[in-house]
Amino acid sequence: MNEEALLARAFEERARIFQRYERGRENLAGQIDPWEDPEFEDYHKTDRYGFIHDERLLQKTAPQKINVEVEREKKWLKMLGSWDSPTTMEKLHRRIYKGIPNSLRIKIWCKLLNVNSVKSTSPGKYQEMLKLAKQWSTDARQIDSDVNRQFREHQFYRERYSEKQCSLFNVLCAYSMYNSEVGYCQGMSGLAGVLLMYMDEEDAFWALAILLSDKKYAMHGLYIEGFPKLTRFLEHHDKILTKFMPKLKHHFDKFGLDAILYSLKWFFVCFVERVPFSLCLRVWDIYLLDGERVITAMAYTILKLHKKAIMKLNDMDLIVNFIQVKLHKEFGYEDDMVIYHLERSMEELKRAKLDYPGPPPPTELPQRALGVFVEPDKKSKIGQRAENFSETEKQARATVILREEEIFVPSDTLKYKSKVTQKDNNSTRREKAALDLQDLRVSQSDTVSVVCSDHSGVASGVRCEDSVSALGSRRSLADTSVTSTADLSVFSSGRSHAPDNSLDTHSNISDDGTGSDGSGICGMSIQRAPSTAHSTPRATPHPPSVSPHSEDVVRIHVTYNPLAASPAHLQPVSPSKYKSYADEHHKPVSLGLYTSNGAPNISSDNRIRIQVSSDELLTPVVDSGRIITQRYIESHPGIYE
Amino acid sequence: MDMATNRNAAAQRPNGAPQTKVCQFKLVLLGESAVGKSSLVLRFVKGQFHEYQESTIGAAFLTQTLCLDDTTVKFEIWDTAGQERYHSLAPMYYRGAQAAIVVYDITNQDTFGRAKNWVKELQRQASPSIVIALAGNKSDLAAKRMVEFEEAQAYADENGLLFMETSAKTAMNVNDIFLAIANKLPKSESAGGGAAGGARRLNDADAPRSSSCCK
């Protein structure tokens, strides 16, 4: 299809989607796919034997609780009459922590968010955005598919194209035009879905707009490309865990469980579908009053209350399931009790000056004017996905990868304190940050990709069995045999590097404390986390902070396999060249640089394969694809003692 | 082949019986939004199907164990979010993965195109020895089919992918595709020799990290 046809198709698709929501359920009789629409009265699940379960309420709200709420309603109604008076401000905090009566949430939430005054400053804006969305929104398809599965167990959203489903679709589409940086990001349907349970369409739109752009909530930074606020809040969350619950943190680290894996919805949608809905509403009440520090404190509170239970779970699967699924179904504490602890947590964190990760940097706030139409580019109009990552996304990837790897360091350090000092540990982390950034560049630029032959595990296994226990565990930590370090400067474009400077001669097991000859890179590969069983080759830069070299220099760890034969389909690239560089003190070794011509299943042809067939390694230095020089990598005799 | 989805297969062997080899593999699910990635996992791991599976934000993690003839295979399954914005998180999940299931929806041609892009990205960026399976999901909606079986099969053959049409709703081919992957993965450290390192044997007594221990 040519571009015009693709554009026309995308236009038709959007028109079709919008039309269905405009017509609504009543006018779509017989036209709604049965699979989109539940036939049964209540939300149902089909079990493994095909039985459909009608899940009824297990518990009803106790009558005395309802009485309390009725009493509170009276007080709240009185307070609503004099909302701006000083007495209200005095009482508000205490009353909100006790919980807003459900029947009044519609009013109080709008008050807390200041919806009416924001709305009145832009009359007609919502309709304008909705109209624009109908014509331009590139997110309609994604929004449609998410509306089709958001809160389908809720009576408002149960029926396809019900009034609230249509409102949800409209609010999200309109917002995707209003804030062109965010557009629509999965997760926002959860926020808008909750707001719409208590507000009409236009109020919900403005409430969503306030949650994203008001500095008190600043959720904009959560949803934009690269998720910068998520990263910042996760780092802060880690800091809190390290300080207040180091054992739990260690427990998570032991299983390679990064906070991003269990807490994403805490931060993204303020605990929707992660704690029981009644509790979620209570947290929202407080969030709307006190802003983003509530999220941080609630995350801490959840883990604090369930620390014991989590410590008993010895499997990443079980922990994640407990935090994400079990606590949603049954939190195990009364809502009031949880809120009591939440308040204590907020005080505790404030005392430790950890209650707030700080105000959002400008990059987390809307940069473009809100409500101003920006025509989408052709690609997004057609619905094509970008083929390459933007700089922001690359950065985000790097951060994510860094977080993933970082968590293995502390557990290692705890076990082998005597071996690795904190200082080295920190510098290793820094280096790894740089490493992963560079790794990214390697893979992204597609300039050079190194395919390492895997270790067989045999030779190293024999050697490592003689090693001291700490090193033995390092072996398994790295899940690797002896890994050598090779330097390849792959990114230089015409610039030449001093080969001597860009060389390091470390085996991977040498990070025994001193670790650095200025390159600051030694011992990198031993941090390889076994649970992720990394196989991708490691390309490492000289970290700019410690290295005088150009950041264009990349180091690639080559896993060594003495038993593997040269793959037959790989053609050596002038291996004889190496011999002239062989140091006469070493036995001659053969080190081949291979291109992957004819290699099946590898699409990229500009890969370099390095086959190392001895533990006395030559380290080639490659500039713009040519080998400049190579060196032996010295083995470390001490490590097998 | 005989198959059971028993989470504690190894532990239940009577004492004295030859120990089953337990291998652990990291598997990632990739594909366009709403093609049924989470539903496939839910069906495989819990045997359930939810009509309205909530959309995955970030990623979900689950495990399931399969028993082959002489080996117990434990899959660590990373189920990723489909929206493009979450794409930047994907490498965290597929890095080091020994297997991937790339899912598309047979009723939507675009999702097939997207699946091809994922395959390309895996071939370029993931471990070279990664076992990739292509799953054409929602085969229960064959009446609305937009991607022909033959077209997908030909693509899979060209690229050396396992291929099946699946239905998380009816459970068709769901266990089978995981089983086919398990069979294709190298089960011992010396086998395969791919960069993914084959499986990690879980019954190495000296493995210090509990996630690498036989459970």
A few lines on this structure:
The complex is a heterodimer of chains A (641) and B (215). By secondary structure, chain A is α+β, with helices and mostly antiparallel strands.
Features:
heterodimer; A: about 650 residues; alpha+beta; Cyclin A, domain 1; three-stranded antiparallel β-sheet; 26 helices; 11 strands; about 10% strand; B: about 220 residues; alpha/beta; Rossmann fold; seven-stranded mixed β-sheet; 5 helices; disordered N terminus
Could you please describe the fold and organization of this structure?
The complex is a heterodimer of chains A (641) and B (215). Chain A is an alpha+beta fold and 641 residues long. Among the domains of chain A are: 147 residues, putative rabgap domain of human tbc1 domain family member 14 like domains (Helicase, Ruva Protein, domain 3, Orthogonal Bundle), CATH 1.10.8.270; 35 residues; 137 residues, Orthogonal Bundle (Cyclin A, domain 1). Chain A is 48% helix and 8% strand. Chain A contains 26 helices and eleven strands. The radius of gyration of chain A is 29 Å and the shape is globular. The C terminus of chain A is likely disordered. The two termini of chain B are 24 Å apart. In chain B, strands 1, 3, 4, 5, 6, 7 and 8 form a seven-stranded mixed β-sheet that branches. Chain B has one domain: 3-Layer(aba) Sandwich (Rossmann fold), CATH 3.40.50. With 215 residues, chain B is of the alpha/beta class. The chains are: A alpha+beta (641), B alpha/beta (215). Chains A and B meet through strand 1, helix 7, helix 14, helix 18 and helix 21 of A and strand 2, strand 3 and helix 3 of B.
